[in-house]
Amino acid sequence: MTKEIPITGMTDIKIGNAQNLDAATGCTVILCEQGAVAGVDVRGGAPGTRETDLLRPENHVGKIHAVLLTGGSAFGLDAAAGVMAYLEEKGIGFDVGVTKVPIVAGAVLFDLNCGDHRVRPDKKMGYQACIAAERQIFDEGSAGAGTGATVGKFFGMNHAMKGGLGAYCLKAGDLLVGAVVAVNCLGDVVDPCNGQILAGAFQDNPFVFLNSENGMIQQYAQPGNLFSGNTTIGVIVTNAVMTKAQANKVASMAHDGYARTMRPAHTMVDGDTIFSLALGQVAADINAVGLLAARVVEQAVIRAVKQATPLCGYKCYRDFV
């Protein structure tokens, strides 16, 4: 049996957001100051990432100290400097003798077309997200990395809806598995129980979802310009004991949660990425961790669109229920 718990209730991690609502962009940081074994799986065709090669099992550094999820496209990776500054001030990082170097992995989503493209997450915003994490100030919906996120963009931004940031955590005995996901997909977000579209491309008067998958199939010969700003990025956090190889496998299994809820997922214009963090407190079968990872990602995606609020003229799930 499993039960839902708040993801902020997990020990040895801190989660915080920083955002600029006027510019419609922001970032989310997951701090693991004691260090965590980490993995990653990048599935989309247009990723923007930091320190992913470091997480390959054959490479040297065994643990990382934070994951940054951020808007701002490639510009948003600047926010990682703020996370590093915060951790360095606390003496946290990989000991290289003369100093300690914080290991901060990260990924970006494209939100430049939602608000003011001239404003992006930077070093200051990354530092602010760490301060918020210290105080456990963490909201879902149109917040953090999900501030400028949108979904359902195949038919153009004038048919898109608001995406957002979602989190979900399950407890099974002593095992905890949680997810934080910023949902900014090209396609639609669906309820995996019945396939019903929850948020995605739509038209007004009368309101109807346009169904992005059907549109792509019908327009296969003339796809047009699909690069309208996409990518869903997320983090799995678990108290399980894992090796780097196992952490990478769990990140891979967690992508099933994307596939269940985003139609389509992993397109060439989505940089879909999932990190995994293992805090190393509970022995657990990796298959169980992986299936729970997919389940919490699934629910985090749904929460992201259900918790979203209107911003910059984009309507959201709440406008139609």
Summarize the structure.
The chain is of the alpha+beta class and 321 residues long. The protein contains five helices and 19 strands.
Topology (SSEs and partners):
Layout: E1 3-4, E2 14-20, E3 25-42, E4 49-50, E5 64-70, H1 79-89, E6 94-95, E7 100-101, E8 104-108, H2 123-134, E9 150-151, E10 161-162, E11 164-172, E12 175-183, E13 188-190, E14 197-199, E15 202-203, E16 208-209, H3 212-218, E17 233-240, H4 244-261, E18 262-263, E19 273-282, H5 286-307
Parallel strand pairs: 5-8, 17-19
Antiparallel strand pairs: 1-11, 2-3, 3-5, 3-19, 4-8, 6-7, 9-10, 11-12, 12-17, 13-14, 13-18, 15-16
Helix pairs in contact: 1-2, 4-5
Description:
By secondary structure, the chain is of the alpha+beta class. It has one domain: 4-Layer Sandwich (L-amino peptidase D-ALA esterase/amidase), CATH 3.60.70. The protein has five helices and 19 strands. It has helices at 79-89, 123-134, 212-218, 244-261, 286-307; strands at residues 3-4, 14-20, 25-42, 49-50, 64-70, 94-95, 100-101, 104-108, 150-151, 161-162, 164-172, 175-183, 188-190, 197-199, 202-203, 208-209, 233-240, 262-263, 273-282. Strands 1, 2, 3, 4, 5, 8, 11, 12, 17 and 19 form a ten-stranded mixed beta sheet that branches. The protein has a three-stranded antiparallel beta sheet with strand order 14-13-18. A hairpin with a 4-residue loop joins strand 6 and strand 7 (100-101). Helix 1 crosses helix 2 (123-134) and helix 4 packs across helix 5 (286-307). The protein is globular. The mean pLDDT is 94.
